[in-house]
Design brief:
By secondary structure, the protein is mainly beta. The chain is built from two helices and ten strands, in the order ααββββββββββ. Strands 1, 2, 3, 4, 5, 6, 7, 8, 9 and 10 form a ten-stranded antiparallel beta sheet that branches. The N terminus is likely disordered.
Length: 163
Amino acid sequence: MKVLIRTALFALAVPLSAAAQTSQLPVEVEADRLDLDQRAGTAVYTGNVDIRQGNMQLRGERVEIQRNDAGELSRATATGERAYLRNQLEGEDVPMEGWARRIVYHVTERRVELIDQAELIQKGDRFQGGRLEYFIDQEVVQARSDVSGSEPQRIRMTLQPAQ
């Protein structure tokens, strides 16, 4: 179980240049319940889940971590009324922060999906909509108003002037 938790948080934590430093930091997990299925490669935390390692934080009412056949983390999904992801990138003054009813982090793609009442703040710029995708390495945001099973949620942006 410790290996699964460490692998999951290591992959969520920071860009590759700082990965070695972050992997040495302690992992803190708080939840009301854990259901671990080694054969299926899943760990499901429920009840006010708060996972932290270094400058990374993931919160939700439920967080599911999935591994692929090789045992590597493939996806982490946080759900709740306002699931939250925070990641302080090395060399940045302020963290990237995101909120949504569902947050999905695709590890190998280094891509985050914020789905339903999504909001993302990155370098002072604010994006809101039904669905936001953030490509970490490229620092690219894609916004959509449509959310499956819900009314469209208009896209709103506030972009800060270049310094």
